[in-house]
Amino acid sequence: MYALIISLFILPVAVSVLVLILPKNLSRILVIASAAILSVISFYLLVSIEEPFHFGVSHYMNEVVSVADILLLLYFGSVAIRKKSWLVGLLTVLQFGALLYLLKIIPEEYQAQFTVDKLSVFMFLLINVISGIISIFSLQYIDGEDCSAFRKKYFLSILFWFIAVMNIIVSSDNMECFFLFFELTTLASFLFIGFRKDEISGKNALTALWMNQIGGLAILGAIFFIIHNGYGTATFSNLLAHSSVPGILLPLALLCVAALVKGAQMPFSKWLLGAMVAPTPVSALLHSSTMVKIAPFIILRLSPALKGTPVASVVIAMTGFVFVAAAIGALSQDNFKRILAHSTIALLALMIMMAAVGTPVTIIAALTLVFFHGLSKCMLFLNAGILERIFHFKQTSDMDKLAETGPFTSLVISIGFMSLLLPPFGAFMGKWFGIESLGVLAINQKMLGAFVIVAIACGGAILSLLYFKVLGLLIARTGDHDGVKFEKTKPLYSATISILLGLIILSVLSYPFLMSHYFVPVASQTLSLPIEVTIYGWKLHVGAMALPVVPLLIAFLLLPITIITATFIRFKNVDRVKEYACGEKTNYSFSSFYFATDRATPYFSVIGILFFITLIVVSIL
Amino acid sequence: MKDILIPVLLILLAPAIGGLVYGFERIVKARMQRRTGPPLLQPFYDFLKLADKRKMIVHSTHAFLGIMHFVSLWFALAVLLLGGDLILVIFLHLLSTSLLILAGYSTRSIFSHLGANRTAISILCYEPVLILIAVSAFMLTGSFDTSSIFNYGASLLFKMPLAFVALLMVLPIKLKKSPFDIAEGHQEITGGVELEFSGIFYEAIYIAKWLDCVFCYTLAYLFGANDPLLGMGLVLFVFLFINGLDNSSARVNYKQMLKFSLVVALPIAFINLLITILFLQL
Amino acid sequence: MKLNSFRKKSPWILHYNAGSCNGCDIEILACLAPKYDIERFGIINTGNPKQSDVLLVTGPVTKRSRERLVEIYAQMPEPKVVVSCGACACTGGVFRGMYNCEGGIDQYIPVDVYVCGCGSRPEQIIDGVIEALAILEKKTKDLEQSIRLKKEPVKEDTQLNRRDIAAEIKEIA
C-alpha cells in the first residue's frame, strides 16, 4: 500500500525528468504507458483502501520541505524583480517573513505527514485518469505549437511534475507541506499561463501568481493561528479533532479563503479567466478538471468542522452569489474557452456551497459534481483544443457551420454541454440533490436556505440559457447536409475524446451503482457518519432523501439517445424543403444572441470583496 | 388499484383531454369577441387533416427533435400525474422544452431562430418561479412528491396564496398566451419554433401544445388537491383568467417580460417561501 | 380510413400579396375579423406556407414578387388549393400588359378558383374558399404540374428536393 502511494508521487516526477532526456518517440511511449500505470494504480487504491492510512516519511523530509519553501519563495522574489511587479514582491516578502517566523515557532514533534483516506483516493482517481488522458492528448497538441523542440519537452515535463504535486497535495495532512504544494500548483499555473511568452500571457500569469499567493498567505496565517492558539501541530486531522474549540473559526476561515482563491471565486475570478491564454490542455487540466478542484477538496476536508458555523454560512451565501454572478458574466462572452471558464467558476461555487452545507446528501452532491464536472469539462476543453488546431477558430459565433464540417466534434461538444446541464446527466443530479437537500437545510438555517434556493434556481436557469446559446450553434445545419459523415481528426485526438466520452456515458449509466459504492463511502468517511443507501420501490433512499431512479433512467434513454439519434436519423420518402424566409432565396448566416452583462463585473467584484471581509470579520467575532 | 388506474387513464387520455380543452378555449375566446367560433372538436379535425398531408421536412434532425419534444413532454406529464417528484417534473419539462429549442436552432431559418431565442428567455422567466413554488410546497408537506400534496391536510391555496398568485403570473408565459406570447408571436414571427414543421411532423408540436395545457392546469389543480371541487374551481378560474388576459392584452417585448418575471413574479414567490418557512412550517 | 373529409373541416389559409393595391387584402382580413368570423369553419390565417392548405393570392404578380410566389407555393405541402382573389390576380386587371406586371397568377402556379371583383367582397371570398374546399377534398397528394414548377426527384431516395424546385424564373418567350 505504502509503496503504491509513494509510487504515485515518484513515478510522475521520474517521467517528468525522463521526458526531457529521451528522444521523441520513446517519450511518447513512456507518456502513454505511465498514464495507464497511474490510472491503474489509483483504481487499485480505490478498491483497496478502507480505513484512513496514515504514514510519515523520514523527518529529513521536513527540512527538505522547509528548504523547498524558501527556494520557491526566492524564485517568486526573482520573478517579482524581473517583471517589476510590486504586488508579487510584497506578497512574497510577507510570505517569506511569515514562513521564517513559523519555522522558528513550529514545535519539534513530528507526526505522520500524510493521510490517505477515501477522499484522497477519490481525488487520486480523478487526477490520474484525467491527467493521463490530457497528457496523451497534449502529445499531439504540443506538436502543433509554434515553439522550440526543447520547450515542447519542457511542457510535457511540467505536466507530469504537476501530476505528482497534485497527488501529494490531496494526501498531505501536514499544513506546512500542504502550503508548499499549494504554492507549487500556483507555480505550475504561473509557468503554464506564461508558456506562450507573449505580452498578454505574461500579464495574466502575473495576475494568477499574485492572486494565488494570497491563498498561500492565508494558509500560513491559518498555521500561525493554530500554533498560536495552542491546538498543537498544524495538521488537518488535528484541526478536525479540535473542531468544537472556540477560536478555531479563524484558521478555518483562513483555509476557506485559500480555497476560495484557488477556486477563483469573485473577485479572484480574474485569474482563471486570464488563464485561458494558456495552451488548451493546460486549461483542461489545471483550470477546470483538477487544480481548481483543490477548492472543493479543502472545504470537503474541513466540512465536519465547518458545518453549521457562521463561517460556513458566509461561504454558502458567497458561493450562492458567485453562482449567479458567474452565470450572468458568461452570457456576454463569445470566446469558447472563456465561456467554459465562466461556467467552471459557477459550478465550482456550487460544489463549494454543497461541501460547506455539510449534510450527508450535500457532500454526496459535491462529490458527484466534482467527478462529473471533471470529466465533462475536460472533454469540452480538449474539444476546444481540437477546434483551435483543426478547425481554426476560437469564437462560438464561428461554430455555426461545425455541424456540417465536423459532425463528430459537434456531437461530442453537445454531449459535453448537455452533461453539464440537463437531466439525467451527473451534474444535473448534483444540482438537483442540492435543491432537494437545501430544502432540508432551510429548516435549520431558514433565511440563508431560502436565499440559496433562489440563487440556485436563477443561476441554473441562466446557465441553461448560456448552454442553449452554444448548443444551438452546434446543431444548426441546412437541409443539404442531411446525411452525416464523421470527419477524420488526428488519431490521438479521437482516441482521447472517445475514451472520455465512453467514461462519461458509462458513469452516467452506472450512476446508482457509483453512488452507493463510490460516492457514499467517501462521504461517510469524510463525515465519519454512516450513510444508509437503500433501494425501495422506484426510489433510491440516501439518508432522509429519496431519489426516483426509474423516471431518471427513462429520462436518460430520452435525452442523449435523442440527440445521438437526431444526428444520424434520416427519414425516407419525405420531401426536403427550404426554410421559410418569406419566399426569399437568400442564405442567411446566424449568430447567437448577445447580452451586454459585462458592465456588471466591477459591481460583482466589489460584492465579492465585501463577502471576503465578512468572512474574516465573522470568524474573529 | 384505483389509485393507479385513474392517473394511468389520465395519462393515456391526456392528449384527448388537452385537445378538448384547446377546442373549448377557442370557443371561449370567440364568445369573448362575440363570434360563434369553431366547433368543439376543431383541434381533432386539424389533427386528422394534418395526418393526411404530404410529408415534408427541412432536415431529419429537426423533424426528429420535434417528435421527441412531444414524447418527453408526455413523459414529464406522466411523472406529474403519477405523483412523482415535483423538482424532477420541472426539470423534465425543461428537458422537453430544450428539445424544442434545439429543434428551433437546428435549422437556418430566421423565425425559427428568433422563436428558439425567445423560448430560451422564457425558460429563464418561469423556471425559477416554479422551483420556488415547489420548494415552498415541500416546506409545507415535507416531501417533494406530488402525491404528498394530495395527502396533505389542507389546501395549498389557503396556506400559500402568494404562490398561487406567482403561478398565475408565469402560466401565461408557459402557455404562450398574450401578453407573454413572445415565443410564438403569430403576427410577428409566424409561430417561432413551430414554423418549420409541417404535416405529420407539425402534429407532434400541435399535440404537445395540448399536453402543455393539461400540464399547466394540473399545476393549478395541485393548489386545491385535497378538495376536488376546489381544485376544479381553481382550474376553471385559471382557464378563464388566462383566456381573458389573452384576449384583452397586447404583446410585450422580451425585456419587459423578463423584467416582469424577475422583478414581480420571482419576489412574490420568494416572499411566499419566506412566509412558509418562517410561519407555517411543520 | 379516408381522411379526405377532414380537409374541408380545417382549411388553414395562407394569404399572399403579389403586388396588390391592398383593396382585396383588407377584404380578406375583414373575413377573418369577428363580423364574418370564418374561424367558425375552422379556418385559421396561418401566415406560414408549411402548414396551410389554401393559398389566397391577391395582386397582378409584379416581376419582383413572382419568384417568391412560386417559392411559397412550392413550400406548401400537397393537397393544396389556390384561390386567386380579385380581378388583378385572375387576369392582371387594370395592370394587364404593363411593363412590370404579369397577367394573373395562373401563369406561374395552377389556380383552382377565381374570385372576381375589384376588391372582391368578403361574401365572395368566403364563397370562393368554400368552393375551393370542395376541390381540396378530391385532390390527391401528388405534386401538381404548373408551368414553372420543375419535378426533379433526388437520385438515392424517392423524395423530392423542393429546395431548388422553384428555381429562377426566366422570361416567358
> Can you tell me the CATH topology of chain C?
Rossmann fold
Number of helices of chain C: 5
* Strand adjacency order, main sheet of chain C: 2-1-3-4-5
Q: What distance separates the N and C termini of chain A?
A: 44 Å
Tell me the span between the first and last alpha carbons of chain C: 46 Å
Model regions low in confidence, pLDDT < 50 over at least 5 residues of chain C: none
Q: Care to count the β-strands of chain A? A: 6
Widest sheet: strand ordering of chain A: 3-4-5
Q: Could you tell me the strand content of chain C as a percent range?
A: 5-15%
Number of domains of chain C: 1
Q: List the domain count of chain A as a whole number.
A: 3
Give unreliable regions of chain A as ranges.
none
Discrete helix count of chain A: 24
CATH-level-2 architecture of chain C: 3-Layer(aba) Sandwich
What is the arithmetic mean of pLDDT of chain A?
A: 80
**What is the SS-derived class of chain C?**
alpha/beta
Task: Explain this structure.
The complex is a heterotrimer of chains A (621), B (282) and C (173). By secondary structure, chain A is mainly alpha-helical. Chain A folds into 3 domains: 1-56 and 111-173; 59-109 and 175-262, no CATH class; 303-570 and 588-621, no CATH class. Chain A has 24 helices and 6 strands. Chain B has one domain (2-280). Chain C is built from 5 helices and 5 strands; from the N terminus they run αβαββαβαβα. In chain C, helix 2 packs across helix 5. The chains are: A mainly alpha (621), B mainly alpha (282), C alpha/beta (173). Chains in contact: A-B, A-C, B-C. At the A-B interface, helix 19, helix 20, helix 23 and strand 6 of A face strand 1, helix 3, helix 4, helix 5 and helix 12 of B. Chain C: Its cofactor is [4Fe-4S] cluster. Chain C: InterPro entries: Complex_I_20kDa-like, NADH_UbQ_OxRdtase-like_20kDa. Chain C: Pfam families: Oxidored_q6. Chain C: Residues 21-131 form the NADH:ubiquinone oxidoreductase-like 20kDa subunit domain.
SSE order and pairing:
The complex is a heterotrimer of chains A (621), B (282) and C (173).
Chain A: H1 2-21, H2 24-48, E1 53-55, H3 60-83, H4 86-105, E2 114-116, H5 118-143, H6 149-171, H7 175-193, H8 199-228, H9 236-241, H10 249-262, H11 269-274, H12 280-289, H13 294-306, H14 310-331, H15 336-357, H16 360-391, H17 402-405, H18 407-421, H19 426-444, H20 446-475, H21 491-509, H22 511-527, E3 533-536, E4 539-542, E5 545-548, H23 549-568, E6 575-576, H24 601-620
Helix pairs in contact in A: 1-2, 1-6, 2-5, 3-4, 3-7, 4-8, 5-6, 5-12, 5-16, 5-21, 6-7, 7-8, 8-10, 10-13, 10-24, 12-16, 13-15, 14-15, 14-20, 14-24, 15-16, 16-18, 16-19, 16-21, 16-22, 18-20, 18-23, 19-20
Chain B: H1 2-32, H2 42-51, E1 56-57, H3 60-81, H4 86-106, H5 110-141, H6 146-151, H7 156-159, H8 161-175, H9 186-189, H10 199-222, H11 228-248, H12 254-280
Helix pairs in contact in B: 1-3, 1-10, 1-11, 2-10, 3-4, 3-10, 4-5, 5-8, 5-12, 8-10, 8-12, 10-11
Chain C: H1 4-7, E1 12-17, H2 23-32, E2 44-45, E3 54-58, H3 66-75, E4 81-85, H4 86-91, E5 113-115, H5 122-138
Parallel strand pairs in C: 1-2, 1-3, 3-4, 4-5
Helix pairs in contact in C: 2-5
Protein name (chain B): NADH-quinone oxidoreductase subunit H
Main location (chain B): membrane
Subcellular location (chain B): Membrane
